[in-house]
Inverse folding.
């Protein structure tokens, strides 16, 4: 994973929104802090643009090509993690929403709001075909902080091959 990739190009409107939060430099430091703790989450969050800030709601938009990043940011545990760290970093409670935006020239320049509430957009918990969840493996993982952290960090699941 290339963590040295340049940040998303910012628009004048986004710069205005980020100034309300404390400035684009503060936002970049915040993203850096998230990447230090949860690399992939920080990368996904860094692929978004701040497109509105109203009251205590920060709207982040993702390009259609970054739909996976949007879904991961919206996942309840990740959204709560981000909101917790936003509050600690910026000193105010902020709720994030993730939208999908369309590039100029597609005929649809207004952001399309997520129809579900943040955090309700969860991947299926079904086991892949040919695999079955194993409670014994879960027990082992729950007893090992290192394994649990890997599973949490990479949104993994433990499965045992079924016969």
């Amino acid at each position: 994973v290339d963590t040295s990739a340049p940040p998303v190009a910012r628009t004048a409107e986004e710069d205005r929104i980020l100034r309300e939060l404390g400035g684009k430099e503060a936002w970049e430091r915040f993203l850096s802090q998230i990447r230090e703790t949860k690399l992939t989450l920080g990368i996904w969050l860094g692929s978004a643009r701040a497109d509105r800030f109203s009251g205590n709601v920060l709207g982040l938009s993702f390009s259609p090509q970054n739909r996976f990043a949007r879904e991961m940011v919206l996942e309840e545990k990740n959204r709560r993690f981000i909101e917790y760290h936003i509050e600690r970093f910026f000193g105010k409670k902020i709720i994030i929403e993730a939208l999908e935006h369309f590039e100029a020239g597609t005929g649809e320049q207004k952001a399309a709001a997520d129809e579900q509430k943040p955090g309700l957009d969860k991947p299926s918990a079904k086991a892949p075909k040919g695999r079955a969840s194993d409670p014994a493996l879960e027990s082992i993982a729950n007893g090992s902080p290192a394994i649990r952290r890997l599973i949490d960090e990479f949104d993994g699941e433990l499965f045992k091959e079924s016969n």
Notes: The chain has a mean pLDDT of 74. The two ends are 35 Å apart (CA to CA). The longest helix spans residues 76-90. DSSP finds seven helices and five strands in the chain.
